Each structure stands twice: as C-alpha cells, then as structure tokens.
Amino acid sequence: MTKYLIRFFLVLACAVLPCAAQAQAVSTPAPTAEIAAVSATDLQTILQANRAAIEKASRSTVDTVLKALLDSGLDGASTFIERWRDRAVVQRKADGVFFYAAESGTQYILTDIATGADAGTAPKTDMEALRPNSGVRAVLSAALVQFQLADPDPAKRAAALQAIERDANQTHLAPLRAAIDNETDATLKARKVRLERLLTIAYEADKAARIAAINSFAGETDVDVRAALSRMLVTTTAFARQSPANTNIARVLTPGEDISVDVAYALLVTAGEAAPAPDAASIRAALIANREDNSVAGMPVASFNTEQARLAAYQALAAAGTVPPLVLEADKRAILAEFQFFDAYAEADSEVTSAAEGALAAINRQVGISRFADLLLDALSLASIYFLAAIGLAITFGVMRVINMAHGEFIMIGAYTGYVVQQYIADYTISILVACRWPSSLQPPP
Q1: What's the pLDDT score for residue 294?
Q2: pLDDT band at 213 (very low <50, low <70, confident <90, very high)
Q3: What are 78-84's contacts with CB under 8 Å, separation 24+?
Q4: pTM surpassing 0.85?
Q5: Mean pLDDT across the chain
Q6: Where are the domains positioned within the chain?
C-alpha cells in the first residue's frame, strides 16, 4: 500500500511542477526583445527620483525637476530638457523608464537617455508619451537658456547670447543674471552684462534698477540701445471724458491742431461714443435708394447738381428717420469738446519714461554731433577738390600770365583721383591691398 502511495505522489508532482513553472513564467513577463536593457545611470536615476513630478508636470512641480538636473552637472541634462520641451520623451508603462523617442508608424524608435545609444523599438501601446502643457514648456525653455549660458563650450555660450539678443523675452533675465558671475571669458562676460542691462530696462520689476540701467547707457549711440529706449517711449492716442489719474500721458492733443478733427471723431466712433458720419458715397447711395418718381424727399432729382442741394435732400430724409443723421463739421467739434485727447505711454511709470527721454536725448545729441562732424569733413574734402580745380583752371587760363596746360591738367587729375579714392577705397585695409598690388612700373621715383 505504501508503495502505491509513493508512486501516486510522484506522478502528481511530475504533473504539477511543470504547470507551476509555466504559471511563474506567465506571471513575470520578459521585456520586449527589441528594447535594450537600461543601465542604472545617474541621469535616469535623477529622473526616476522625480518620476511623479515629470509624469504630471505643472508650473509648481517642474522647478523641482529642473533644480535636480541643474545641480547634477550632467552633460545630458540640457538635452533632456530640450527633448522634454519638444515632447520627444516617452515612458515605458511596465517599469517607468524614460526614453527619447521618434515615431515610426505604430512603433517608437527609442534612444537611451543616458548614453544616447539605440534602445530598439517598442509599440506605442507599451509607452506613455510625455506632453507638457504650454506653461511647463515656457519654464523649460527658460531653464534651457540657463544651461546654454553655462555650457563649458564658449561657442555654445556665445550662440545662446546671440539667440537672446535676437529674440529676448522676460524669461531670459533671471538665467542671464545667474550666468554672469561664473563667466570666465572676458568678452562674453561683457556681452552678458550689457545684455542684462538691456533686459533690465524692458522687464525688471524694480523701478530703481530700470532707471539705473537706462542711465548707464547715456551717451552710447548703438542701435540696440536706441531701440530699447525708444520702446519705452512708444505712445498710443487715446481719449477720456476726464483726465485719467493712472495714465502716463506724453502730451495732450487739441483736435484741429495736434490731431485732425476727422481722426479724433473716428476714434470716438470706433469706441461707440459717437454716431458714424456719412461720407459722400453714403449720401449718394442713400439718395439713390430713396428715389421715388424722379424725386427724393419731395425734391426733384434734376436739382441735385450741387452739393448743397444733395445735403438738403439727405437732411430731409434724416429728419424723417429714413437715414442716419448728417454730422457736420460743427457737430463733430461740439462732440469732441466733451472729451480730452492725449498720447499715452505704453510704459506706466512716468519716472521711467522721463529717464528714457533724458538718455535718448543725450544719445541723439551725440549722434547729431557725429553727423555734423561727418558732414563737415565731407564738405572740407569736396571744397578742397573745388579749390584744387580752381587753381588748375587759373593756371590753365593764364591768370598768373603763364600758359602752362600741363600744370593745370595734372592738378585736376590729382584732384579727381583723390575724390575717387576717397569714395571707393575708404577702408584702410583695402587701401593697403591696393598699394601692395600697385605695379612697380607705375611707382613714383624715389
């Protein structure tokens, strides 16, 4: 009996163990063969430590991730931020590992985040794409600038500065300031400091800092400085029934003097403060539309050969309520008298605009002096040519009682040669090249 029991349990064990092994294999799925194994790298470790903040990124949580990446000092941190911003990062659903991804039909072509190596492919259903919203992407763009400004390669830092110079915005100010103290290149540091002052003028919240930055550019005639100051003085024409208390007014406008009556009235019409004034085309169309038996409002059409007759007919229609009322010049002025017109600065702080006006005035004076000096030198140069020409003609026609055509002609040739050289070879480098390439046979004798 015991022998039979032993045989029964052995058969049962042989039947159960393969099934258990198969169940174990099913319950623990093997990774897809196409996806390479991910090594535990520092960058991936940082991302996994901040996994929740990355998966559900928002303006309030993304700063934690960015700080961790910035503090890591890893070369791939800026690349991850850029790819994340561009929505080119995916996460494997099975284990939460992050990859760079490119779409290929129903598959993702994966790249290892840490090494940049090919990580195979995976079905889109196995991966979760990270899609940060516009607010998070703006924060990522600002952080990316900070990484680029602190890049070990001076060429990349210079390229980042050039990109900010071309298209600066408010998010660039803080990263730019953070990158100044650690800058080792003297030329790049000077560019950063100068660009920081320009951005301070436009985007700094502290009024005193803005005014200090504006005053620091007094006397500089560079185009970008004048453009930055001019933006502070941009105005728009507006109106109000009473003088507005919280508006930085550049100047008050008088209709008919500083602004035309028609333009001022059009502003009121656009704002719904006045009825549109019918123009000549509208009046003509109204008369045609209300014509009955060769008459309009009881007036014969044959009498409409004068402007006064047409206006009278239109006013008759307006009195009957058929057409909008006619607005004459006197009516416009009466309505305009109820409002105050002015040019208002886009910049709300009057102290900032006053500082910008002063700095821009100083720059314009410097530009005016430079232009006057340039014009004076050109005038002296041209006058010298005419003077030499006069001497040549004087010699030629014998004012000195010596008829010597050679002297006069050579003086004129020299004068015009000097003029041509001045106009077309103004650069010192080009003049040296011309002198070096001058044929030796034409060189003057020593």
Answers
A1: 81
A2: very high
A3: 78/144, 78/147, 78/148, 78/151, 80/43, 80/47, 80/113, 81/140, 81/143, 81/144, 81/147, 82/140, 82/144, 84/54, 84/130, 84/132, 84/140
A4: no
A5: 80
A6: 42-137, 236-345, 359-442
